[in-house]
C-alpha cells in the first residue's frame, strides 16, 4: 500500500511537472510568451535611480574640475584650449566613468586676435605730439593668475585694425539715440567716442557712430552698472569682494550675428567655400577698444562741453559732460586728442568641439543634448568653466552607472563641449549647420548650462514654455544650498508669477536672444531648449552680470571665494540640470507640456491684440487669422492631452507612445519659417526670435509694427500684414502637427 | 487493483491538468503572455491581399469613371470642376467602398482666363486696315464634345492683355539663341514672332523675345513635332487617328514658377497676405497666343526673307523663312501686319483639393501619399482624367476592403485630388505649403499618376533611385496588357540599361522638372516621389506627347478609341501603382533602397568628374570634398544595409524597425538646402533640381559651371566653389542620417 501510495505520488508529481511544462511551452495559441523587449519598451523613469544620481553629485568633484579647467587661460584655439580638449576627451573616454564614446569635431573658423608683438594702444596726445597718458595695457595683477603670459590683452574681437585720432566725446551707451543726441549740438566727424557697456550690442557702439563720422570708439564698464557704485581696489573691489577692480576690462566679440562668418549656413570645414571677408555684415566699421574704468574715469571727468542728461550719468564722482568735443581748457589734457592704435588680426584657425555619446537602449535615434562651451577669454572660471565643471560631474556620475551596467538611458544622450563660443557661438552653430537634418529629426531637447553660477541666491531658467514643467519637477527634488527648502521653493520666493493653469509658480524666461549656445538649437533648428543656472538676488545688486565677466579676474580664486564658496550652488545646478536630463532621456511619455505652450501663445496674443488691433483695423489689417490660429492651437493641445490621459501607454502598442512623443518632440520645429526674418541670420522660430521692439509678444509682428508705426508707409504696413500671415500659418501648422491626419 | 489504477489515472490526469493550468498562468516570471499587439507591430505585406487587389482592379470600372469625369469640361474653378469635386467626395465618402474620411481643402488662387464676352483675336491686317485673315477662335468640331459652350477658347494663361501689331517673323522655338540668330540680320523691334512649341518653357518664348523689342508672340504645334508629319483631317488626323487635327491648339500655363504666385511660400487662404501682381516674376511681358497649325501654315508659308536653317524647318510643305520681317511681296499678305488682341483677365478664385484618408493601424502617423490633379483644360480625358479614373478604381478596391474590415494598412494613406494644376501645380503646392512640417516629418513617399496612359506600349516611371526597386517588384506581378509577359518584362524590352548592382533593368527617369504635382513634394519637401504611367513605343512615333494634349480633342471618344481601347493599359497602371501603394503602406521594413541611391550618386559623380575636374583644377577648385562625400554616403549605406540584413526585425523590439524605417523615409529630406537655388522657387533638393545645362549630373554644379565657363568671371567660379560646398555637405549630411550617432 505504501509502495502504491509512493508510486501514486511520484506519478502525480511527474504528471504535474509534465503538465506545467506543457502549459508553459505548449499552449502558444492562446498566449505566446511575451518577448523580453515588451518590458523594455514600456520602461519609464526609475525614481530610485534619480535619487542615486542626486546623492552622488559631489561638490568637491565640481571644485576639483574647476581647479583643473582654470589652471591656464584657455581662449579658443590657444594651447590652453587644446589642454581642455584633451581633458574632456580623457574624462569622457575613461573606462570607469566615461561615456560610450567621445570624439573631436573640428571646424576652421574666422577669429580675431590682438597682436602679441604689437599690443593695441590708447593714448592721450597733446597738440605737440607728446603722449600725456597711456591707457593700461593689461589688467593689474592681484594673484599670479593675472601675470600668466597667456592672459590676452583686453581687446574688441573683430574690431578692424587701424589708427584713429580725434577729440573725445562721451556717447553714453552708443545707442542710435545717443549719437543723434550728441549730433544735435556738435559735429562728430573725426571724434573718438567713449561709451559705456550696455544698452546695445558691443559692435553696435561702433556701427551706430560711424555714420556720423566718428573715427574710433572706446568702451568701458561703468561702476554704477556693475559694481553698485563701488570702485576702490584698496578695500572695495576684488580681491576684497566680487566687484570689478578699476583696471578690469570686459573683452568680447564685436559682431552682430552668430556662427562662423565666412561660411554662412555651411559647416566651416577646412575645404568649405568661404565668402570674402569684405562681404561680412554687422562688423564694426571703425576701430573700437575696451578699457578699464580707471582709465575711463581719467578721460570722462576731464571732458568739456555741456553736462550730459541725468540718464547718461554714471558712477564717477564728476559730472559726465558731452565733450567740447575734447577736454576742458582747465585740464592737463587741454586741446589734446585721443588716439587708438589697433593691431587686431583676423585668422582662420581650427577650433574643436568635443562630443560625447551615450547610446539609448530603447530609442537610440532620439537625442537629448546637453552642452556648454569650453573656451574662455582668460581663465574663465565662471564663464564657461563653472558650467563645464558641472557637466563633467554629471557625466562622471552617469558614466559610472553606464560603465557599471546599472543604467542605460531609454534615449541617446549627446554631450557637446563647444569651441569658440566667445567669438559668437561658433562651435555650436557649425555643429547645427553640419548635422541639421539628423538633429532636426531626432532631438528631444537641448539643455544649456554655460555660466552655471552667476551668484548663489536662486535657480534661474529660461526656455520654451513646454519645458517649464520638467524643470519645476526636477527643482522640487533638489535641496536649496544652505536653506531648508527645495530649489523650487527657494526660486518661488525670489521670482514668481501667477499662471492660469498652475497658480503661483516661479517665473521662467524665454530664450529670445543669442546669449549662449542654445541659440543655434532654438532659433535655427527649432529644438526645444532651455538654459539653467544659479543667479542673483536682484534686490541686493544691480550688477548687469557678475562683475569679473570676461576679465582676467574670472579665476578659480574669484569663483571659490566670491561666487560660490563650497561649490554648493554648482552642486544644486548639477542636480537640477542632471535630473532634467535623466527625465528627458528616460520618461516613457516625453515630459514636454504643450498646455503651457498654449498658455504662452494666448498671453502673447492678448498683448498683441491690446497693443496693435485698433491701429491695424485702421489700416485694414485684421488680426482674426492670428486669433483663429491660437484658438486652433489650444484645441489641438486639448485633443492631444485627452489622448494621452485616456491611454494606458505603458501597455498599449509601443508605436503609440512613439507617435505621441514625436508630436511633442517636433512641436517647436513647426514654428520655423526660414523666410520669416530675412535680415536676421539663422533666426527662424517665429515665436521666440529676437526683437528690438521690447514688447512681450510675437517678435516679428512687434518689430514690423514698430517699423510701420514710425514710417507710416503703406509698404511697411504690408510687411506687418505679411508677417501676420507668416505667424498665423506657422501656429496653424504647429496645431496640425498635433493631429494624426492634419485635418483641423 | 483496477480501482487503484483508475484512481491513479484520474489522479494523474487531474495533476496533469493542474500542472497545465499552473504552467500556463502561473509562470509569469519566465514568460508572461504576449500582448495582442506583439503580432500587429510585426505585420508585413500580406501577399494574398495583394493578389486580391490585383484581381479586383477592373478596366470597365475605370472606363466608367472616365466617362463620368469627362462628361463636361472641368477647367479649374468652373462649374464642371465643382462637379468633379462632388464626384470625388461622393466616391470617397461612400459607405460601401469609400475611405475613412474625405474632405475639401480650399485655396484662393491667382488664375488667368480669356474673356468669354471678348474672345482673343489674331488677324492679318493690310496697310489699309482690311482684315485679310482671322485665326480660328475655337477648334473645329468633330464630335459633340467640341461644341460644348464650356470649351474654353485656346489661350495662353497669364499672357498679359493687350494689343500688339507688327510684321511677322519666324523665331523657331523662341529660345534665346533663336532670337539672337534673327537679330543678327534684322531689327526685331515691333515685330510679331511666330514660334513652335518645344525647346523652352511656354512663357520663355515671350520672355526671350521681349528684350529685342518683339511686340507679341504666337505659338503653335508643328506637325513634325507632334503628328509625325501628318496633317490632313480628311483622313490622317483625329477622328481618323490619334494625331492632332489642323485646328487643335495646346492651351497652357505661361509662367515660370509653380504654386500660387501671389502667396509665395504661404498657403493661399482667403485671408493670406498677397504680394502685388506687379511683383510676380517670370510672366510673359508681352501678349502671347497659341494657334493651330492650320493657321500657322498660312502665316509661315507666306513669310519673306532668307530661308531659316535646316534645324528650324518643320512639317509644312514650304520653306520656313525668317520673315522680311513680314510677308513675301508675292503673297496676298504683302505688306500686311499681324495683330494680337488679347483680353485675358487675372482673377483670384477659390480652388479645391479633395483629400481622402485611410488611417493606418500600426503607424497612423506615417503617410503614403497618392495624388493626381483633377482640373483639365477642356474635357481632359487623358490629362488628367485617365489618372483620376485609375485613382478612383484603386480607392474603390481598397475602400471596399477597409469597409468590409478585411484590410487596414499598417501606415496611413492620404489621397489628394489636386485643383488648378494646369495653372502651375497650384493645389498641390499650396497643400505642401500649408502642411509642410507634418508632411516633411511623416511622409514615406508620394506617388503621382497624372496622365495614366500616354500610349499603350509600355510602363514608364520616374522617381528617386530608392523607389526603383519597389516599382520593379510591383511591375513583375502585373500582366502586360495584350502580351504574355509581365509589365516588367515588357518594359525591359522597350527601354533598359545595365546597372552595376542589378544587371539589365528597365530604365527609369529622374524627377528633375516640374511637369506635374510631384514637384512640390520632391523639390520643395524632399519627399521620395515617383510618377507612373503607360507610354509610347518611341520607335513608332516622335510625338512630343500624345497629340490631343491640352486641346478640345482630349475626350472620352479620343481616349477610348486611340489611346487605350478596352482600358487595359489603365488597368495595368492601376494594378502597378496600387501594388506600389500597398507595399509602401504595409511593408514592415520600408521598401526604399538606398543602395540604388548610392549607385545614382556615383554615376552623377563620375559624369561630373569627367566633365569638370580638369577645368576646375585650373581655377584651383578641388572636387575632392565631393568625392569624399559620395564615398561616405556609400559607406553609410553599406553599414545600414548590414544592420537590416543582420536583424530579425519582425521579432526584435518594434522601435528598431521604426528607426531603420525613419532613416529610409527621411533620406531625401537630408538633401534639401533652402539656399541652394536662390533663383528657383521651391527648388531645394540639391540632387534632383531642374537644370538648364542639360548634363546628367548634379544640377546646381552643372548650371554654375556652365555659367562660369561662359562668363569666365572669377565671381562665377566662386559660385561653382560655393555650390560644390553646398552639394558636398548635403551628401555628407544625408550620410550622417543613416547612422545613429551622426559620427561619420
Descriptive account of the structure:
The structure is a homodimer of 744-residue chains. With 744 residues, chain A is of the alpha/beta class. In chain A, 37% of the residues lie in helices and 15% in strands. Chain A has 22 helices and 19 strands. In chain A, the strands form five sheets. In chain A, strands 1-12-14-13-15-19-16 form a seven-stranded mixed sheet, with helices on both faces. In chain A, strands 3-2-11-5 form a four-stranded antiparallel sheet, with no helix packed on it. In chain A, strands 6-7-8-10 form a four-stranded parallel sheet. In chain A, helix 18 packs antiparallel against helix 19 (624-646) and helix 19 runs parallel beside helix 22. Mean pLDDT of chain A is 95; it is low at 26-30.
Give a short summary of the structure:
With 744 residues, chain A is an alpha/beta fold.
Amino acid at each position: 500500500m505504501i509502495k502504491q501510495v509512493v508510486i501514486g505520488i511520484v506519478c502525480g508529481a511527474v504528471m504535474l511537472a509534465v503538465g506545467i511544462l506543457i502549459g508553459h511551452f505548449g499552449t502558444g495559441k492562446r498566449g505566446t510568451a511575451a518577448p523580453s523587449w515588451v518590458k523594455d519598451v514600456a520602461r519609464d523613469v526609475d525614481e530610485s535611480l534619480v535619487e542615486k544620481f542626486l546623492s552622488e553629485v559631489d561638490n568637491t568633484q565640481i571644485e576639483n574640475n574647476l581647479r583643473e579647467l582654470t589652471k591656464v587661460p584657455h581662449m579658443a584655439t590657444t594651447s590652453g584650449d587644446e589642454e581642455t580638449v584633451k581633458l574632456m576627451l580623457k574624462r569622457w573616454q575613461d573606462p570607469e566613468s566615461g561615456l560610450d564614446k567621445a570624439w573631436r569635431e573640428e571646424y576652421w573658423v574666422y577669429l580675431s586676435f590682438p597682436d602679441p608683438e604689437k599690443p593695441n594702444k590708447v593714448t592721450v596726445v597733446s597738440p605737440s605730439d607728446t603722449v600725456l597718458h597711456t591707457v593700461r595695457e593689461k589688467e593689474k595683477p592681484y594673484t599670479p593668475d593675472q601675470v600668466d603670459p597667456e592672459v590676452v590683452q583686453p581687446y574688441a574681437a573683430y574690431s578692424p585694425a587701424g589708427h584713429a585720432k580725434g577729440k573725445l566725446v562721451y556717447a553714453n551707451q552708443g545707442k542710435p539715440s545717443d549719437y543723434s543726441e550728441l549730433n544735435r549740438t556738435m559735429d562728430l566727424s573725426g571724434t573718438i567716442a567713449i561709451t559705456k557697456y550696455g544698452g546695445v550690442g558691443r559692435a553696435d557702439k561702433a556701427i551706430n557712430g560711424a555714420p556720423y563720422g566718428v573715427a574710433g570708439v572706446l568702451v568701458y564698464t561703468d561702476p554704477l552698472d556693475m559694481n553698485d557704485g563701488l570702485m576702490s581696489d584698496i578695500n572695495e573691489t576684488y580681491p576684497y569682494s566680487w566687484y570689478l577692480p578699476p583696471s578690469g576690462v570686459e573683452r568680447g566679440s564685436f559682431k552682430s550675428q552668430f556662427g562662423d562668418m565666412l561660411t554662412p549656413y555651411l559647416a566651416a570645414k577646412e575645404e568649405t567655400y568661404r565668402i570674402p571677408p569684405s562681404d561680412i555684415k554687422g562688423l564694426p566699421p571703425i576701430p573700437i577698444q575696451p578699457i578699464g574704468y580707471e582709465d575711463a574715469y581719467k578721460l570722462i571727468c576731464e571732458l568739456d562741453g555741456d553736462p550730459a542728461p541725468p540718464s547718461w550719468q554714471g558712477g564717477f564722482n564728476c559730472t559726465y559732460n558731452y565733450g567740447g568735443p575734447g577736454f576742458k581748457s582747465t585740464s592737463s589734457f587741454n586741446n589734446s586728442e585721443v588716439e587708438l592704435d589697433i593691431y587686431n588680426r583676423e585668422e582662420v584657425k581650427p577650433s574643436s568641439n568635443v562630443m560625447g555619446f551615450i547610446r539609448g537602449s530603447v530609442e537610440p535615434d532620439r537625442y537629448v543634448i546637453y552642452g556648454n562651451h569650453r573656451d574662455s577669454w582668460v581663465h574663465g572660471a565662471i564663464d564657461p568653466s563653472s558650467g563645464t565643471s558641472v557637466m563633467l560631474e554629471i557625466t562622471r556620475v552617469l558614466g559610472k552607472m553606464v560603465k557599471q551596467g546599472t543604467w542605460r538611458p531609454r534615449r541617446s544622450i549627446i554631450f557637446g563641449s563647444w569651441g569658440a563660443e566667445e567669438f559668437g557661438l561658433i562651435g555650436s552653430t557649425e555643429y547645427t549647420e553640419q548635422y541639421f537634418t539628423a538633429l532636426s529629426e531626432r532631438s528631444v531637447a537641448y539643455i544649456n548650462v554655460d555660466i552655471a553660477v552667476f551668484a548663489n541666491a536662486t535657480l534661474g531658467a529660461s526656455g520654451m514654455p513646454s519645458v517649464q514643467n520638467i524643470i519645476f519637477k526636477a527643482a522640487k527634488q533638489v535641496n536649496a544650498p544652505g536653506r531648508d527648502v527645495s530649489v523650487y521653493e527657494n526660486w518661488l520666493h525670489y521670482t514668481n508669477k501667477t499662471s492660469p493653469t498652475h497658480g503661483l509658480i516661479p517665473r521662467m524666461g524665454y530664450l529670445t536672444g543669442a546669449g549662449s549656445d542654445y541659440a543655434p538649437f532654438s532659433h535655427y533648428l527649432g529644438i526645444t531648449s532651455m538654459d539653467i543656472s544659479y543667479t542673483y538676488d536682484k534686490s541686493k545688486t544691480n550688477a548687469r552680470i557678475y562683475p569679473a565677466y570676461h576679465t582676467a579676474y574670472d579665476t578659480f580664486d574669484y569663483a571659490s571665494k566670491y561666487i560660490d564658496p563650497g561649490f554648493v550652488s554648482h552642486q544644486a545646478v548639477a542636480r537640477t540640470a542632471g535630473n532634467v536630463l535623466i527625465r528627458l532621456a528616460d520618461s516613457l511619455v516625453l515630459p514636454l507640456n504643450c498646455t503651457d505652450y498654449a498658455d504662452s501663445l494666448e498671453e502673447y496674443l492678448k498683448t498683441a491684440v491690446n497693443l496693435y488691433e485698433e491701429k491695424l483695423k485702421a489700416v485694414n489689417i485684421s488680426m482674426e487669422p492670428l486669433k483663429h490660429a491660437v484658438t486652433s492651437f489650444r484645441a489641438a493641445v486639448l485633443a492631444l492631452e485627452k489622448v494621452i490621459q485616456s491611454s494606458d501607454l505603458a501597455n498599449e502598442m509601443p508605436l503609440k507612445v512613439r507617435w505621441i512623443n514625436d508630436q511633442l518632440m517636433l512641436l517647436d520645429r513647426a514654428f520655423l519659417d526660414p523666410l520669416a526674418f530675412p535680415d536676421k541670420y539663422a533666426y527662424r522660430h517665429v515665436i521666440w526670435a529676437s526683437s528690438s521692439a521690447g514688447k512681450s509678444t510675437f517678435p516679428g509682428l512687434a518689430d514690423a509694427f514698430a517699423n510701420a508705426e514710425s514710417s507710416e508707409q503703406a509698404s511697411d504696413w504690408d510687411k506687418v500684414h505679411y508677417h501676420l500671415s507668416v505667424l498665423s500659418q506657422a501656429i496653424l501648422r504647429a496645431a496640425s502637427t498635433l493631429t494624426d491626419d492634419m485635418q483641423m
